[in-house]
């Protein structure tokens, strides 16, 4: 039956005295809308079945039935179809049959949508009376219903709020999926004729909008978090969220730097982004978050994930460096660092390869490791390991070339023993020998002779209390790193090695108008330390970490000052060194002096009652110990000691620092490129170097030879006792650790018999 005919039939019914309900079913919403518009006039009442629907999903069928039965006017009941279909076929059929079977006071038209196949009743009276009217027209595509949590309503534009809106939505919405915000569970409607889905939280919705989000388990967020993400994403995909919050998908690894400063919400979003998309430029970051269940676990995971990778794995070096680059921005996470250091102990000797120098706990763990395992490795082996793990400590241990073999061997061994926290018996023998021989007198010039010759014009001087020559490798390395040229000369202090006897250079600076800044921190640590630096409380040399920091801070300051032209040159000069090994020795000598020892027993005022002890030097009214003993009566040392006459106490550096000059010319003089040797002769080279420096030397076959200046400015002479064999040699010309030129060749030839003068 056409819509026009049905409208005329209804008009006829409404004008009649017939009192029975009529069912009018529509195949599409357009015709139904037109029909209702036609009759929405005058006293005709349009009543929605939603009026009889509870918020809990129950339908008050009896109340609705009574309302139809007692109606005295013209009633049009709409929006009933969805409720009936939700309850299943039997409820739908029986409810409609019950309605059309009623005798009513007025007129009632029950409008249904796509229910015709359920209106086939055996009672012929319904058809005879014209109580069932079917509109013949095109069918709409059936809609489905999705019940969403009320908390998600904002995320679904156009969603219907409340279950009572189901009927209205089903009859009027043009959407294929109709969203109803309700707490009603779809399980109530197990017999439903309408396809029902349910999204209880934002996670379900998000996965529908972007399937990639299924890679993030629902458990890693709560309902509020997923709902918040849904609001942010709106109708877009997850890529939109990442780009709006973090810039780009490809830049997620860079955002890890800012993670500590994010809000909790943004931290969680970042965690989701990494879980779903991974990190394209940092495999360690992706690896670290695998297996964690909360964004709060990210810092700990970044610290600890490396532990699960065998250090011999081919990917370990790459993972290590990627982790270290990330953790540069996580130094405030000390609890995580401490936790990592505890767990890494399980690696035992392998633990060193997992540590970094980024946090104080890790640095101290390196020192602890050296105390236990360091003696198993040579200095070079430790330097190779520490170049990766703790570069500053590697620089401290690095070889500094003194111009005397005694100093080279002595201080390389001294530094090694300091970091492994023990005295080697062989070294103690050397110390005892030096205490008797006192070679430092001939090997080292007095500091005064050296400092008096320094040009202090345009110079700022730094009096660095207790800076011994053990730090020169570190200083030279850092100056190279900072683009500074360094010229180092070593001398000896006055005895006893106390500050009060070693400040003559201050007067020189004052006379020359050279400003002086005093640096006391190093000496304060050695004398007093802190709670964690006290030898009686902590036996390992963790204080060395802070010592290197203090020196580095000064070098950085000097660099800035030179770059900013505050001065042309900085000169660092020290009053004395100090000894760690004398503290480790823990030995008082047998001498009970009339006067108590001072400076932790390293020296004692001379008196007429006692005899000068063994291994002691008499100077300036003191007896000064040159070995690792201590006079009785002096207080125990906290960290390190000075006042004695060991090499580490008496050897002091004078360091001149200037802006590095690039492209310094250096070469072998032409007449020295071929050297003819007679028997028992050694080669002598002369080289040109375009700077004045006391650190000029050459490397030949991996062996270093010191150069000495000549009467001719910029000309240096080198003796090469290791190059007596016939052949061509390649030479590197160096200034300290700076290579000035490479592949300089000279040839050694042997003089023939006739070439040798009998009178030479």
Keywords:
Immunoglobulin-like; disordered C terminus; alpha/beta; Rossmann fold; 35% helix; five-stranded parallel β-sheet; six-stranded mixed β-sheet; 760 residues; elongated
In short, what is this structure?
This protein is an alpha/beta fold.
Describe this structure in words.
- The chain has 760 residues and is of the alpha/beta class.
- Among the domains are: 3-198, Rossmann fold, CATH 3.40.50; 444-660, no CATH class; 662-755, Immunoglobulins (Immunoglobulin-like), CATH 2.60.40.
- It contains 29 helices and 29 strands.
- The protein has a six-stranded mixed sheet, sandwiched between helices.
- Strand 24 and strand 25 form a beta hairpin.
- Uncertain spans: 756-760
Q: Assign the structural class, choosing from mainly alpha, mainly beta, alpha/beta, alpha+beta, or little secondary structure.
A: alpha/beta
Strands across the major sheet, in which order? 10-12-20-14-11-13
Q: Evaluate the radius of gyration.
A: 46 Å
Which helices and strands occur, and which strands form pairs?
Elements: H1 3-14, E1 22-26, H2 29-39, E2 45-48, H3 61-69, E3 74-78, H4 81-86, H5 89-100, E4 107-113, H6 125-128, E5 132-134, E6 144-148, E7 160-161, H7 166-172, E8 177-181, E9 196-199, H8 202-209, H9 223-233, H10 238-246, H11 252-255, H12 264-277, H13 283-289, H14 298-304, H15 316-327, H16 334-344, H17 360-373, H18 379-389, H19 391-397, H20 405-420, H21 425-437, H22 440-443, E10 445-446, H23 447-451, E11 459-464, H24 472-481, E12 484-492, H25 504-511, E13 516-519, H26 521-527, H27 543-563, E14 569-573, H28 581-585, E15 587-588, E16 603-605, E17 616-619, E18 622-625, E19 629-630, H29 647-650, E20 651-659, E21 666-668, E22 674-677, E23 684-689, E24 696-700, E25 703-706, E26 708-709, E27 715-719, E28 727-735, E29 738-750
Parallel strand pairs: 1-4, 1-5, 2-3, 3-4, 6-8, 6-9, 7-8, 10-12, 11-13, 11-14, 15-19, 22-29
Antiparallel strand pairs: 12-20, 14-20, 16-18, 17-18, 21-23, 23-27, 24-25, 24-28, 26-27, 28-29
Helix pairs in contact: 8-9, 10-12, 13-14, 14-16, 16-17, 18-19, 19-24, 24-27
């Amino acid at each position: 039956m056409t819509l026009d005919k049905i409208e005329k039939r209804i008009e006829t019914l409404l004008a009649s005295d017939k009192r029975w309900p009529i069912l009018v079913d529509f195949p599409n919403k357009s015709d139904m809308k037109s029909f209702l518009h036609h009759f929405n006039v005058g006293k005709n009442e349009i009543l929605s079945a939603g009026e009889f629907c509870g918020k809990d999903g129950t339908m008050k069928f009896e109340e609705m039935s009574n309302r139809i039965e007692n109606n005295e006017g013209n009633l049009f009941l709409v929006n009933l179809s969805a409720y009936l279909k939700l309850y299943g076929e039997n409820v739908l059929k029986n409810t409609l049959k019950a309605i059309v079977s009623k005798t009513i006071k007025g007129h009632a038209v029950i409008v249904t949508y796509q229910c015709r196949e359920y209106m086939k009743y055996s009672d012929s009276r319904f058809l005879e009376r014209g109580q069932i009217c079917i509109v013949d027209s095109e069918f709409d595509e059936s809609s489905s219903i999705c019940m969403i949590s009320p908390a998600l309503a904002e995320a679904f534009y156009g969603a219907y709020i409340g279950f009572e809106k189901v009927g209205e939505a089903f009859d009027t919405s043009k959407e294929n999926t109709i969203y109803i915000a309700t707490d009603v569970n779809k399980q109530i409607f197990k017999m439903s004729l309408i396809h029902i889905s349910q999204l209880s939280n934002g996670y379900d919705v998000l996965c529908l909008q972007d399937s990639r989000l299924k890679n993030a388990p629902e458990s890693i967020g709560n309902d509020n978090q997923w709902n918040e993400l849904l609001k942010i994403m709106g109708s877009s995909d997850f890529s939109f969220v990442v780009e709006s919050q973090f810039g780009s998908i490809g830049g997620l690894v860079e955002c890890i730097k800012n993670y500590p400063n994010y809000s909790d919400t943004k931290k969680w979003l970042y965690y989701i982004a990494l879980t779903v998309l991974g990190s394209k430029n940092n495999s360690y970051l992706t690896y670290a978050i695998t297996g964690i269940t909360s964004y709060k676990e990210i810092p700990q995971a970044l610290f600890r994930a490396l532990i699960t990778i065998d250090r011999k794995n081919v990917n370990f070096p790459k993972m290590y460096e990627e982790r270290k680059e990330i953790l540069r921005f996580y130094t405030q996470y000390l609890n995580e660092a401490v936790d990592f250091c505890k767990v890494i102990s399980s690696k035992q000797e392998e633990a060193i390869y997992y540590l970094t120098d980024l946090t104080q706990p890790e640095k101290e763990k390196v020192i602890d490791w050296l105390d236990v395992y360091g003696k198993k490795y040579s200095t070079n082996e430790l330097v190779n390991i520490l170049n990766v793990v703790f570069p500053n400590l590697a620089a401290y241990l690095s070889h500094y070339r003194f111009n005397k073999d005694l100093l080279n061997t002595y201080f390389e061994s001294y530094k090694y023993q300091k970091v492994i926290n023990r005295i080697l018996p062989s070294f103690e023998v050397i110390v005892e020998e030096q205490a008797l021989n006192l070679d430092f007198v001939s090997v080292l010039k007095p500091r005064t002779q050296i400092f008096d010759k320094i040009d202090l014009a345009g110079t700022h001087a730094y009096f660095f209390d207790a800076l011994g020559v053990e730090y020169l490798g570190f200083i030279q390395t850092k100056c190279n790193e900072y683009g500074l040229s360094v010229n180092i000369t070593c001398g000896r202090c006055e005895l006893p090695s106390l500050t009060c006897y070693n400040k003559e250079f201050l007067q020189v600076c004052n006379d020359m108008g050279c400003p002086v800044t005093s640096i006391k921190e190093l000496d304060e640590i050695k004398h007093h330390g802190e709670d964690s630096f006290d030898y009686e409380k902590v036996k390992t040399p963790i204080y060395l970490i802070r010592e290197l920091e203090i020196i580095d801070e000064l070098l950085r300051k000097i660099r800035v000052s030179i770059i900013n032209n505050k001065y042309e040159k900085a000169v660092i000069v020290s009053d004395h060194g100090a000894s760690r090994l004398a503290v480790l020795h823990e030995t008082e000598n047998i001498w009970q002096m009339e006067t108590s020892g001072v400076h932790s027993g390293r020296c004692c005022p001379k008196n007429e009652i006692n005899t000068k002890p063994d291994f002691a030097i008499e100077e300036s009214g003191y007896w000064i110990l040159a070995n690792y003993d201590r006079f009785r009566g002096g207080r125990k040392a906290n960290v390190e000691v000075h006042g004695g006459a060991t090499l580490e106490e008496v050897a002091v550096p004078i360091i001149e620092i200037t802006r590095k000059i690039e492209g310094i010319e250096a070469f072998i003089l032409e007449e020295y490129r071929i050297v003819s040797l007679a028997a028992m002769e050694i080669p002598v080279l002369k080289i040109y170097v375009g700077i004045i420096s006391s650190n000029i030397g050459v490397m030949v076959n991996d062996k270093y030879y010191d150069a000495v200046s000549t009467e001719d400015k910029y000309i240096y002479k080198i003796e090469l006792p290791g190059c007596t064999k016939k052949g061509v040699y390649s030479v590197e010309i160096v200034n300290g650790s700076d290579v000035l030129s490479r592949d300089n060749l000279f040839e050694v030839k042997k003089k023939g018999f006739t070439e040798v003068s009998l009178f030479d």
